[in-house]
Predict the 3D structure of the following.
Amino acid sequence: AQSVTQLGSHVSVSEGALVLLRCNYSSSVPPYLFWYVQYPNQGLQLLLKYTTGATLVKGINGFEAEFKKSETSFHLTKPSAHMSDAAEYFCAVSEPGNQFYFGTGTSLTVIP
Amino acid sequence: DTAVSQTPKYLVTQMGNDKSIKCEQNLGHDTMYWYKQDSKKFLKIMFSYNNKELIINETVPNRFSPKSPDKAHLNLHINSLELGDSAVYFCASSQIGNTEAFFGQGTRLTVV
């Protein structure tokens, strides 16, 4: 069975500070891992994904995430937060041929 | 061109009514999904469907039923609406292999 745990339902950072959003997963087979962002009153937009290959993946808007199998983690980072990064972030996992399962989300607030 | 489109965007209705939400994808994907997002932003899978198999989340009441007239459409019918059905419903699609799910903009359903 697959599951996703996002630590911290709310994260606040100062503008220009490092963003770190945590995600741990469980999966019985090598998973596909995703980070999605949701801006207010909008749908979910893919930030980045890991399927195979390089464990450090880069996404849009300066975000990146590293797949660490030994830690079953896929944390999302950005070196310098912008005001426009304020949104809800979702980590998701899927196994090939199966559904996508989402974490409970982390609301990111950027303080000017 | 919108990849996954849902209509309507907003839906306000009275308890006991029957309503439908339409979803269309123009990506040529073979799998479509319905998710429910509650007021706490939790995303819960309701259904996944391709031309071979319908997978139903066992916690979804049988008042909810997906209907797929063709591969590009997956509509959601809801009978006897209840107050607790108020939420944002998202349609999504993906191609076999689940390398990414594309989401619609959501339908905000309010039951009064």
